[in-house]
Each structure stands twice: as structure tokens, then as C-alpha cells.
Amino acid sequence: MLWFMTVQWKRLKKNGSDPVPSEVVDRLFLSDESPLKIWREFRGMKATELASISGQDKGYISKLENSRDALSKASSGKIAKLATALNISMEELVFNNGN
To answer: How many domains would you assign to the chain?
Structure first.
């Protein structure tokens, strides 16, 4: 698992066209925050904007951001819509969820 996290961390930091700051990468790997919230904040989006772009309800976004368990139980279709709205892969949204 540590090797996987190291590879992911390096990939995120080198994301050529859209570099991800170290602070964001650290939050993704070292905090208990929801990856959805971290990515949304990095993109400078309000929860209402993410809800509108992804076609999800704002309350559902809030639920996903406040419960790591809820994000891990979300359908792949909903995860795909959220990831697309955030311009990231599904794996980047859920890779470390629940660990």
C-alpha cells in the first residue's frame, strides 16, 4: 500500500498541465478529510456549483463530503459524474477513501 501511495503522490505532484500543490497532495494522503471536499476546494468550487455541474443534489454532495463511508458507498456512475465535474479521474477521487 505504501508503494501505491508513493506512486500516486508523485503522479499527482507531476500532473503536467494542472499541477497539484503539495498542500493538496498532503491533505489527500494525510488528513481525514473527504477527498471530494479537498478536490472541490482545490478547484475553487462551491458545493452548489459542483452539484449543478455534476447533476447531483447539494445535500448529497454535503453528505459525501462529511462522511467517508458515504463516498465509499456511492455508485460508480455518481463518482464518475463528480470526477468529471472536478476534472480528475475516478481513481483520484476514491483511491485512498476509507484507508
So the answer is: 1
Q: Using a CB cutoff of 8 Å and minimum separation of 24, what contacts does 6-13 make?
A: 8/95, 8/96, 12/92
Q: Where are the alpha helices (DSSP H) in 1-99?
A: 2-13, 22-30, 35-42, 47-54, 58-66, 68-73, 76-86, 90-94
Evaluate the CA torsion angle 88, 73, 99, 34 in order and state its sign. Answer: positive
Q: Which residue has the cell 478536490?
A: 39
Query: What domain range is 70 assigned to?
Result: 57-94
DSSP 18: S
Residue 43 CB coordination number (10 Å)? 15
Q: Dump pLDDT digits (tens) for 49-75.
A: 999 999 999 999 999 999 878 888 899
In a domain? residue 42: no
90 in any annotated domain = yes
19 assigned to some structural domain: no
To the question of pTM greater than 0.70 for the whole model, the response is yes
Residue 87 belongs to some domain of the structure: yes
